[in-house]
Write a structure and sequence with these properties.
526 residues, 9-stranded mixed beta sheet, 6-stranded parallel beta sheet, 20% strand, globular
């Protein structure tokens, strides 16, 4: 007798092939039979008129800290996620030296919505074991962040590695990959990653290639330097053979809209040459990041306390404002890309600044917006996040339609307010780009959300519906499918996700999450 039998559904198997009618039987945590099944089961779900798909894989999110919170993250299940990948943009919770822990926590707090992380580990293996002690709603796969590896060796100093430091950093990375990390991520606009050289990144990429991982990159520019930044990512693949994923691919700022046509062709050309280069994309025209990203990189040299000291010094403040006003910056200047009207503060430890644009705050207080922006960072002690409206909807559609892109959220969980992408992205793709605009076929969209990211990561037992695969499954009412999350109500849950199974256990039933913790920490090659 099977443990679970899903009858009469339309199977969209995650391979990109045409959907077909079939039953799916599960024993324990494994799919054991697909076809016409007449044998009995402990639990039978009638999926007549519904889709049966693999669980969705969010290849790029920032759920790192919520793993350690009471109640964990059941809302993510109601978007159909069964696996999420953390440690992105160069920011991971491990590895750590004892000397770095306090400074790294201060740096990461805004990214993690000030959710407390114990940091009672040093190695990546110890970190994964700490996560395993928690009750997980869904599976977690981790990447090693370049930022934390660099900080372990050179702190937040703006300089190249010495040869000895490079060897130390390569050893830290290799040990973390051996512990089960699926790859290595970089955030090359964020300190300390922004201080790295291309040669440094090539050295790291060679280690990742040797260990069979992937290299994901928030590239050095998503605006004026976008094309050169994509060239660097492709060059990394060409020189090292590493599998490259360009994170949350976009063209930021009105002068750069349309450059996506060029960069997507560059990715296609790289694929034609046999290089394993992809990108991921979320279905919104606004990004979200730490509010301190308004500052030039030198402002964060030495870490957050040094940044706050600079904000207190009148002469340094004047230099910072001058840098932000520079119309031809050599860094990713968010003010030049969107202006203050386009920066919406979602979360701030000084609550009066939250849920407003910077321009609104300045008008209300009759303040200079440049000075006010620095005051907010100082008053909140760096605890502020923002949404930035600087993308073009047509560019987003082009990126989603590319055969070499997969879907991500790039989402941050929040105790107050964040970006709707964290709770709405994948259902939004199915509703907007499949049902309404017909940009993607149903099987293409599901492939970009399951089989494609699984293959990229090297997850051999998840991502598709086939006999012998782990039973991460969805039953979806396509007619009822709707994403409710908005910029003002970012945590509104999706409709239409009838059932979700993680490792063979039902965790969402009739659209409601259950107090069942079936998620696992996944380790590369294990």
């Amino acid at each position: 007798m099977y443990d679970l039998l899903i009858k009469n559904g339309l199977v969209v198997d995650g391979t990109g092939e045409i959907p077909y009618a079939a039953d799916v039987a599960v024993s324990g945590d494994t799919i054991v039979k697909i076809g016409q099944i007449d044998e009995p089961a402990e639990r039978v779900i009638d999926a007549q008129g519904k889709l049966v798909t693999p669980g969705f894989i969010d290849i790029h999110c920032h759920s790192d800290a919520i793993m350690f919170q009471p109640g964990k993250n059941p809302k993510r299940l109601q978007q159909g996620f069964t696996t999420e990948v953390v440690g992105n943009c160069g920011v991971s919770c491990a590895p750590l030296t004892d000397e770095l822990k306090e400074r790294w926590a201060a740096y990461c707090d805004p990214f993690f919505s000030n959710m407390k992380v114990p940091y009672n580990w040093n190695t990546y293996d110890e970190y994964l074991k700490a996560v395993e002690k928690n009750q997980l709603c869904l599976n977690m796969a981790g990447l090693v962040g370049h930022g934390v590896v660099r900080a372990c060796v050179a702190g937040f100093e703006n300089r190249p590695f010495t040869q000895e430091e490079m060897r130390q950093a390569e050893k830290i990375l290799a040990d973390s990959l051996d512990a089960g990390a699926f790859g290595f991520s970089s955030g090359l606009i964020y300190p300390p990653g922004v201080y790295s050289t291309q040669e440094e990144m090539l050295n790291f990429a060679r280690v990742v290639k040797e260990k069979g991982g992937i290299y994901t990159s928030h590239i050095r520019s998503e605006s004026y330097g976008l094309i050169d930044a994509v060239k660097e990512a492709i060059n990394t693949a060409e020189k090292t053979g590493v599998s490259v994923e360009i994170s949350h691919h976009k063209a930021a700022g009105r002068p750069n809209h349309g450059k996506i046509r060029t960069t997507l062709q560059m990715i296609a050309d790289a694929q034609a040459k046999g290089l394993n280069v992809n990108c991921d994309v979320y279905p919104y025209d606004a990004a979200s990041t730490n509010f301190n990203s308004i500052l030039p990189p030198w402002a964060l040299e030495g870490g957050i306390e040094k940044m706050l000291e600079r904000l207190r010094d009148p002469a340094t403040r004047a230099k910072l404002i001058e840098a932000m006003k520079d119309e031809h910056p050599n860094w990713e200047s968010f003010y030049q890309l969107t202006g203050w009207e386009g920066m919406y503060i979602t979360e701030c430890s000084v609550e009066k600044y939250a849920d407003k644009t910077l321009a609104e705050i300045a008008r209300e207080e009759n303040a200079d917006p440049f000075e006010k922006a620095l005051d907010i960072l100082l008053e909140s002690r760096n605890s502020a996040m923002m949404i930035v409206f600087f993308m073009d909807a047509q560019d987003v559609s082009r990126a989603i339609a590319s055969p070499y892109s997969m879907i991500c959220t790039d989402g941050f969980p929040s105790v107050k307010k964040s970006h709707p992408r964290y709770y709405g992205s994948f259902v939004r793709v199915l509703e907007k780009y499949v049902k309404e605009e017909h940009l993607l076929s149903l099987q293409q969209a599901v492939y970009k959300m399951s089989g494609m990211p699984a293959a990229k990561l090297g997850l051999t037992d998840r991502g598709t519906l086939a006999e012998g695969m782990k039973a991460d499954l969805l039953v979806i009412d396509l007619d009822a499918l709707h994403d409710n999350a908005t910029y003002k109500n970012d945590t509104a849950l999706c409709d239409g996700m009838d059932y979700v199974a993680v490792n063979g256990q039902i965790v969402v039933e009739h659209g409601q999450s259950l107090p069942v913790f079936a998620g696992r920490v996944l380790r590369k090659g294990r």
